[in-house]
Amino acid sequence: MKKHAFLSRDPASAHRSWQGSRPASFGGASSYASSVFEKDFAARKGVSEKPVEKPRKRFRSSKLTGDYEKPWLKNKDPREKLDKVFFYGLSLIGAGIGAYICWDRWNSVGNQNYCLAWEDDFSGGINKDSWNYEVQIDGFGTGSFDWTTTDPRNAYTDANGLHIVPTLTTEDIGISNNQLIHGYTLNLTSGGGDGTCTGTSNSACSIASNYTLNSVIPPIRSARLNTKGKHMLRYGKVEVTAKLPAGDWLWPAIWMMPQDNAYGDWPASGEIDIMEARGNSQYVFRNGGRDTVSGVLHWGPTAELDRFVETSNGLYMRRKDFTQDYHTFGLEWTKDFIFTYYDNVLKQTLYVPFGSKLGDMYSRGRYAQIANPNGYGAPNNPWSSSSNPNAPFDQAFYLILNVAVGGTNGFFPDGYAGKPWVDKLNNSASAFWNASSAWKPTWGDADSRGMTVKSVKMWNTC
């Protein structure tokens, strides 16, 4: 069967065949259609016919020429001068007020005379003439999951300074995971312990694991060193240069406690936190992670009435965090203020002023307006014996360095960062330990999961 030309596989042949078979009389219409098609195709492709150029109009300036009246020079409005007076006058007043505020703030904290009283770079190890070990297992009131030791795996020195490193209890003292949860007795003064305990209660020195009672051997071991009775400060300056640890639920702190509880048990005699931070990623807590450091004062007639929220503040670092390099964490303290910072005084983490105009701490805490938790009216004023408005921060304090792990006091808020325990439940320690497969990979080697302290300096006021 003969194929039609337009069915041929050769497009050129089909085109020629179609052209050859069309009638001659169709040529005129074809030319017109072709012309229309070409114009339409050109328009679709963005090609247009060259427009006809029109002659340009000559530019005429609207500027006035010759002599003309200038009434605004002859009849000036006197209010125009007042506008300038107000503008420049208020600008000068604003600049003066701003300069005074800057000078006053600088003068209040930057013009103190300090004399170096003590320093330690740990080149000679952990000097027993300067440092004490605290050895306990009860969480020191925060419910932390570590117990502190004298073990050199938890506190040691090298060329970089002092290292405070948390370790796993099961790896250090050779007990099994089952014993950690049930059937093991730990006594710090004998088997499994350091042979000593600095705590003052049985619960601080011994514990028996019991699954039914949710009693767990502290799953983490760490260290806590202080200068109590050796290096104290009442007004002066402290600077600690350190690199902070990275890892979930790590809690490094540089802080101070009163040498003598002159006003009663905590927090009546006060607490000064120069620096505390979280080892978790900076993106998982509303108050920051390892990119944020905080300064805090604790004070109040009772633990339930601690007003630390009113005297706490944090400062975060952009693009980096405090685990990547060494930073200096400082405190300046006089009868007129307490001021904490990192690296320099311009990076202020906390500023708390004192003075008779502000009132004493009892009135600042508004304790007279609240009811005593036991229903006996307003709580007693623990600072009534002092005439100093900054009491309890008018006594000598000593320095503490430690790395805690976890806790049930709210420092790690429930519901954030996959926190595996709930503060108010009595199974917090076991819940934390059971989630070790989640947090343990975030801990690095000893250098990264521990706090490294390069130096400590303490100044008195001259």
Written account of the structure:
The chain has 2 domains: 79-109; 115-461, Jelly Rolls. It contains 11 helices and 21 strands. It has helices spanning 11-21, 27-44, 71-74, 79-109, 169-172, 177-181, 202-205, 361-364, 428-434, 436-439, 446-449; strands spanning 114-120, 132-133, 146-148, 155-158, 161-164, 167-168, 185-187, 206-208, 220-222, 224-226, 232-233, 236-243, 250-258, 271-276, 292-298, 312-316, 327-333, 337-342, 344-353, 397-405, 451-461. The strands form 4 sheets. Strands 1, 4, 5, 12, 17, 18, 19 and 21 form an 8-stranded antiparallel β-sheet that branches. A hairpin with a 1-residue loop joins β18 and β19 (344-353). The longest helix is centred in the first third of the chain and has 31 residues, at 79-109. It starts with 10 loop residues before the first helix and ends with a strand. The model is unreliable at 1-34 (pLDDT under 50). GO terms for molecular function: hydrolase activity, hydrolyzing O-glycosyl compounds. One of its GO terms (biological process) is carbohydrate metabolic process.
Gist of the model:
This protein is an alpha+beta fold and 462 residues long.
Strand-helix topology:
Layout: H1 11-21, H2 27-44, H3 71-74, H4 79-109, E1 114-120, E2 132-133, E3 146-148, E4 155-158, E5 161-164, E6 167-168, H5 169-172, H6 177-181, E7 185-187, H7 202-205, E8 206-208, E9 220-222, E10 224-226, E11 232-233, E12 236-243, E13 250-258, E14 271-276, E15 292-298, E16 312-316, E17 327-333, E18 337-342, E19 344-353, H8 361-364, E20 397-405, H9 428-434, H10 436-439, H11 446-449, E21 451-461
Parallel strand pairs: 3-9
Antiparallel strand pairs: 1-21, 2-10, 4-5, 5-21, 6-9, 7-8, 10-20, 11-20, 12-17, 12-21, 13-14, 13-20, 14-15, 15-16, 17-18, 18-19
